[in-house]
Specification:
The chain is of the alpha+beta class. The chain has helices at 2-14, 29-39, 44-53, 106-120; strands spanning 20-23, 63-67, 73-84, 87-97, 125-129, 141-142, 148-149, 159-163, 173-176. Strands 1, 2, 3, 4, 5, 6, 7, 8 and 9 form a nine-stranded mixed sheet that branches. Bound molecules: coenzyme A (COA).
């Protein structure tokens, strides 16, 4: 019976009829942790989300989930505060989709929803450290094009930035992530 329900949910996501994106609410916390644990090899990202939730980098309304029509949380995208020089921005991390549901557009939907929420709130820019084959579809460009870098060595095309509005001001400089990321400023 449960398997039948899950198969039905997967079909609903695949044809696009059942996917819901919305900001996280308190009952989602354990499900978000489970999605991050399922998507990554270790619990590091799940722990990071929980640490960020208790930090000053957290912004209510910028942690987004994707659910099936039945309400199962299957995807998550998180935006938290960061700075580049004097400019206040957001960083996108982590992004996770339950492996059983990957490759169906759920990651894209939940990331787009989180970015739109940031845009509506007047955010200026978003930094992501991730797969250069994935994030440009949302508007991310190489951070080095903006004179932005990191204090640690990463592949040059993995650090990306996108502006959220035409008037966005982005300083050149080094990305300063929130303390739970463990990346020195
Ligand atoms: C990355 C992730 C969030 C994407 O979610 P998704 O629902 O599978 O993605 P979508 O269905 O929206 O998009 C699928 C596209 O993403 C691409 N993609 C997925 N994982 C990728 C990766 N590791 N590197 C590059 N591209 C990737 C697929 O190739 C596909 O590309 P296409 O549209 O050109 O065919 C998801 O695959 C995931 O949770 N992966 C494991 C955790 C992770 O690596 N998170 C990102 C780092 S924070």
């Amino acid at each position: 019976m449960i398997e039948h329900g899950r198969e039905r949910n997967e079909a609903m996501v695949k044809d696009g009829s059942g996917l819901v994106t919305r900001p996280e609410s308190p009952p989602d916390v354990d499900d978000i942790r489970a999605v991050n644990i399922a998507a990554f090899e270790t619990s590091e990202e799940a722990d990071l989300v929980d640490a960020l939730r208790g930090s000053s980098a957290w912004i209510d309304g910028l942690s987004w989930v994707a659910t099936t029509a039945a309400g199962d949380v299957v995807g998550h995208a998180l935006l938290t505060r960061c700075t580049v020089g004097e400019s206040a921005g957001l960083c996108l991390a982590p992004c996770a989709v339950d492996p059983r549901y990957q490759g169906q557009g759920i990651g894209s939907a939940v990331i787009e929803a989180a970015l739109e929420a940031a845009r509506v709130r007047g955010g200026d820019f978003v930094v992501v450290l991730g797969h250069p084959g994935y994030y440009p579809r949302f508007g991310f460009r190489r951070a080095s094009d903006y004179g932005i870098g990191l204090s640690i060595d990463v592949p040059a095309d993995a650090l990306m930035v996108m502006t959220l509005n035409d008037d966005a001001s982005v300083s050149a400089g080094t990305v300063c992530y929130a303390e739970p990321f463990g990346i020195p400023c």
